[in-house]
Amino acid sequence: MKEDFLSVVESKRFLGREFLTWLVFRVEEDGGKMVLGNDVVELALGDRVVLQEPGEQQARLTLFDQGDMSPELGAGLRRGKLIDRARIAVIRGERRWELSLDGGLLTYDSLRCPKLGERDANLSDDPRALFENDLFLRLADVEEVVGFLDRLFASFCQLRASPRWAEETLPALRTWVAGLGS
Amino acid sequence: MGFLSASSSIVRFDARAPRTIDREAFCEAVNRHAFREDDEDGLPRQEAFGWVAIHDPLVVELEPSDIFFQQYAVLGFRYDRRVAPAKLVRLETRRAEAERKEQQGLERLGRAVRREIKEEIEARLLLRALPSPQLFECAWDLERHTVYFTGKSRAPREAFTALFRDTAGVSPLPVIPYLAAERVGLSEAIVEAVRGVEPSVLASRRDEEPRVAAAAAGASAGGAGGAAAGAVSGAVSEAADAAGSDLA
Q1: Is the alpha carbon torsion for A126, A128, A132, A134 positive or negative?
Q2: φ, ψ for residue B179, nearest 5 deg
Q3: With contacts defined as CB-CB under 8 Å, which chain A residues touch B220?
Q4: Which of A130, B21, B25, B186 is the most buried (most CB within 10 A)?
């Protein structure tokens, strides 16, 4: 079972990397505004991107820059790599999360959540109650951002499983990759 | 590193909670697997891990009220590791080997004897080594069958999954993209279709040609000296990396 699972982890890593690459493509091409049902969420690319090549000896390319990473990103993607990890910001109204999304494994590294809201004044004498209050709010923050990313992943899966992927999205992605930094 | 830290790394697991959970029995199981620094003989372990209260890592006798709130079961996880300094092991091993040779009037020691001496030295030094503790947190959302764990390093994560399985009787599976597809509200047909797709090639054929030519010319596909990498001013590292190092 464990070996089966590990082989799935390895053989299907590309799925999450394609998701992350598609996400960055959408951010770069559409300005990052995503409509998820009744929600509007904005995504912004941060200052760190890791590209990785498939295969046993995976060559990795780490980029970080305050400015325009397009030339480096384009060079990596044109050489067959996919985005494995990217620092992104998720903004919903005045709330902002920052994280490094690991596409290959769908883990959330260096996650910074919005500041916790105002504390209930009635709890100020009870440190344990305060802790539980803060923890509950923080878990809600975590589930909120993970929920957004799940919904984006669901959109990607729907697209990836449909003929539109090969007919529309893939050609658009290739055009974007070919034009990055040129 | 916990949920309330300024920044934390979070790994998500799928863990099916029973429809009704016996809170007392779960708490007893947690206490059976609470953090203990020493083994049954009172000797320090090289690797020690177990549950602690999430609100205070020194609390290792937990009540259900320490664990359950709202739809969550929340626990702290302490992972200590003792390591004898490698240089000290080498020096002390050399000293012990020299003493053994002198005692037995030998010029050389066999490989098995040298290994035995080294293991003895390591065990002796380990008794004196201080543990390096790491604290993590986990929250099991019993309604969504999701466990959030605030650690990504391999050794503590593996220890955590084993401890969780032994405590809850459920094996937590990391929610990798392949598994996530069935958790995001998609139809079974779409899930199966996505799981069956092959990788897409994003580089156009025109872009592929120089890559193939470079490979044929002996250039490393990922090497910093490659033609494409030469244009990459922002690239800070490019390294061959074993794929299995993350979740293997």
Answers
A1: positive
A2: -80, -30
A3: 59
A4: B186
Q: Do residue B202 and residue A154 have CB atoms under 8 angstroms apart?
A: no
Write the residue in B144, B203, B232 that is nearest to A177 by C-beta.
B203
**pTM for this prediction:** 0.83
Instruction: Quote the CA–CA distance of B31 and B60 in Å, as a whole number.
Output: 7
Contact check, Cβ <8 Å, B235/A153: no
B144 and B37 fall within a common domain: yes
Among residues 40-79 of chain A, which lie with CB inside 8 Å of chain B?
A: 52-54, 56-65, 69, 71-72, 75-79
Widest CA span in chain B: 77
For chain A, what is the domain count?
1
Split into its structural domains, chain B has a count of: 2
- B27 Cβ contact partners less than 8 Å away, ≥ 6 residues apart: B62, B63, B64, B66, B67
Whether B231 is covered by a domain: the verdict is: no
Same domain, B143 and B118: no
Rounded CA separation A100/A117 (Å): 23
| Helical residues (DSSP H) of chain B, grouped into ranges | 23-32, 64-67, 86-104, 111-128, 154-168, 177-180, 188-195, 205-216, 227-230
Q: In this complex, do A71 and B246 lie within 8 Å of one another by their Cβ atoms?
A: no
* Strand partners for B132: B81
pLDDT digits (tens, 9 = 90+) for A123-141: 777 888 888 889 999 999 9
Domain, as residue range, for B120:
86-127
